[in-house]
């Protein structure tokens, strides 16, 4: 019977690895180097704390001495559009107090009154909202439809981008305008009456 050669066992650390005590020594020396840098830079106080120390000679800055970075910069005003904002050049808001008087004056005017040939036609509109989002404008349009009134969404280009206005009309006279505005108000929809030329 022939003798077998003994099997060679593989080394556990893969052969030529760095011993663990070397890594331990590198870690300790690295920590000491960081501690020395902190001490030299003044981050590590004499009492062993890393916290800032009070300065008894310090005084509070007056508002004019306050650093610019600490002052609160005023937040830039973002354009907010109410329902009567961003009207066209020849559109004027009719105040709510003037609307009944205007309707009454039109009703008392004689029907056969002669209108001058060069007189501009007056149109009455209602603006119920102005939005940056077309979906918000469409939602208000749908809400107005539930009142029985017919609204439309008009887009307008302004310096800040596009806005979407929810409008009703034109109405033939101030009485029809007042009635439509009253219907919207009764349903909780704030709107502005507009005279356009």
Give a topology summary.
Elements lengths: L19 H22 L49 E4 L4 H10 L14 E9 L2 H12 L5 E8 L2 E11 L2 H13 L5 E5 L1
Helix pairs in contact: 2-4
Helix and strand content put the structural class at: alpha+beta
Number of helices: 4
CATH topology of the domain at 91-109 and 121-196: Alpha-Beta Plaits
In one word, what is the shape? Answer: elongated
Helix content: 25-40%
Show unreliable segments.
81-85
If you compute it from the alpha carbons, what radius of gyration comes out, rounded to the nearest whole angstrom?
A: 40 Å
User: Could you give a short account of the major beta sheet?
Assistant: 5 strands, antiparallel
CATH level-4 homologous superfamily of the domain at 91-109 and 121-196: Sporulation related repeat
CATH class of the domain at 91-109 and 121-196: Alpha Beta
The share of residues in extended strands comes to 15-25%
- Please state the average pLDDT score: 78
Q: Give, in order, the helices and strands.
A: HEHEHEEHE
Strand sequence of the main sheet, in spatial order?
Answer: 1-5-2-4-3
Distance between the termini: 122 Å
